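Quick illustration, no need to memorize.
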Amino acid sequence: MSKVLVVGGGGYVGAVLVEELLAQGYAVRILDRLYYGRQGLCEVEDRVEVVVDDM
């Protein structure tokens, strides 16, 4: 299983990308400051690692 880091995975575009990566079998880690909340992560949060930080 390959691992992928998605920067900005809490936003709309990032969330769509995360869903596709999970469907393809990738292990996903999300880096996001979550300024606008966690709504983009609702359906995947239990299947990914979320790191809350700002670059």
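The mean pLDDT is 90.
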